Amino acid sequence: MAVEFLSDQQAAQYAAFNGAPSRAELERYFFLDDSDLEKVQAKRRAHNRLGFAVQLTSVRYLGRFMPDPRQVPAEVAEYLAEQLGIADPSCLKEYGERDGTARAHAGEIQEAGAGVTSPRCGTS
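RE: above sequence
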């Protein structure tokens, strides 16, 4: 028999963005190091580079992949776009228009174990 231990509100907030991350969280979880940049820069178009970076970093922060990476807080997209030299972070809305792109990128990230560490839950 399954036991529900989370309220509906808690379940909805689990492994999801509950507002914009703080500046310290952006710097800790969304900073792209040289290895990250190498993986991201392998993507041809700006929206795919930004979308890949969103997936790569949000899985670090949340502990799972987002159902729709385009739903990341604007502050995250802006922080990543700045690191990637992408002038318009709104290009993220085009990410995943080709069916399978986001899934393929998530698989690539998962296969590489690309910097996935413990999510923010329970960290200091």
